[in-house]
Amino acid sequence: MKLLIFGSTGSIGRQLVEQALEQGHTVTAFARDPSKLEARHDNLKVVQGDAVDYPSVEKAVQGQDVVLCSLGAGAKGTVRSEGTKNIVRAMEKAGVRRFICQSTLGVGDSRDNLNFFWKYIMFGGLLRQAYADHVSQEDYVNQSRLDWIIVRPAAFTDGERTGEYRHGFSGSDKTAKLKISRADVADFMLKQLTDDTYLHKMPGLSY
Fold this sequence. Notes:
Elements: E1 2-6, H1 11-22, E2 26-31, E3 44-48, H2 54-61, E4 66-69, H3 79-94, E5 98-102, H4 116-126, H5 128-142, E6 147-153, E7 155-157, E8 166-167, E9 179-181, H6 182-191, E10 204-206
Parallel strand pairs: 1-2, 1-4, 2-3, 4-5, 5-6, 6-10, 7-9
Antiparallel strand pairs: 8-10
Helix pairs in contact: 1-6, 2-3, 3-5, 4-5
């Protein structure tokens, strides 16, 4: 398939690029600074652009089969939501339907999956702005006419890709370990390319 990956130089994005190429897909990696992407492959095209710049997003979306988004903005900023807004708009205009967007566990009806530390100290304090950015991001996706899946991973680790993790657990589940490797996040996101189990849903992802 022809895949367009936003946030391709981030920790999840790099995994998406690497694993998608392993699976034989043709990948367009969208990056503000292409030099940060070390991957080289005959099926990889790197496009320089900024997700908050609509014309560059619109151009990149043309001719793609599926768009994946793992935009990051650190603890502050609105790159996730503003970039996602542009992606949704460009996809609707181009007629590209499938959108797989990475958010975070704890947003919306998954808030009760979190423990006290994540609910009140991290998302309630230190990462308050990042959390709000994810909330806005999900709103833009949820209101779109796309065939979307929002993936809500727990806290990232640098572990290996195991392919063994929990997903789609209820919002009241308290047994999740609240961590997941970046490699497994990418693994799950790529499994959504053709699987409609979570179409128009927001599955949580954790060990």
